[in-house]
Amino acid sequence: MSRFLPKWCPDVPTLLPALSSSCRFLSKKKSPIMIVLTGASCPAFAFSRLGLHGDSDWRKSDCRIVDPHCSRGRWMRFSNGIWFQDRFYALSVEGTLAVVEEDVNSDLLRITKFGKQRAVPDSDLAATRRFRECLVESEGKVVLVFLGSARSMETVDHVEVFRLELKELAWVRARSLGGAALFLGSNTCVSVEGKKLLECKGNCVYFAASGNGGGWGVYDVESGVISSCERDFGGRTDLFQGNTTTLLCKLQRRAD
């Protein structure tokens, strides 16, 4: 991947990189775009087109827009985001949704829309900020999952799932994920068909827990119950060690 990208400036922080599409789709007409959120306002993000006809340098974009949900009136700073249907949906540290699109006239990425609704958990976790947010595409929808730690920072004991209504740019609580199973790691979030992985259930969120030796937990969306993956898989602790990719490879081998 690095051979397609310009050299990064060491003075600019990096928080989250996101690629618009797979590198196998590299072409003259539509090259994938790598966007990097910095966690700052200036620049708020940098981007570069990949491929032979890509950019020779990173293009940086500032955001001097006051975050409507910031009580201190600070400029927006983005902490998370996801590409979906040629647009990048970015979440600010205060839970404001911004839509980033390509300007066909200037060939730049610009913020074009904002969601009015704040993306935060419905529970008291919003005030304590003892939660982390995960964005993932699942069954043609953008899904936002909050993993909260109400009692201990070492254990996830509260999960909330929302889907994005694109027309209204509003977050709606998801009562079902259908047959999908979400796997949320520390750096990677993936949606798969639950029935394709042996013993995995659809309509569930599997997440990497910070405690318990780095194991995994599972949240059943229908019942609202959180349990240990090791317990559900007959005490197989060896299965649930490692990152998201490692876990999915192990489960796929069991299914085969």
From TrEMBL:
Pfam families: Beta-prop_KIB1-4
InterPro entries reported in the protein's UniProt record: KIB1-4_b-propeller
Domain KIB1-4 beta-propeller: 27-220
Name recorded for this polypeptide: KIB1-4 beta-propeller domain-containing protein
Species for this entry: Linum tenue
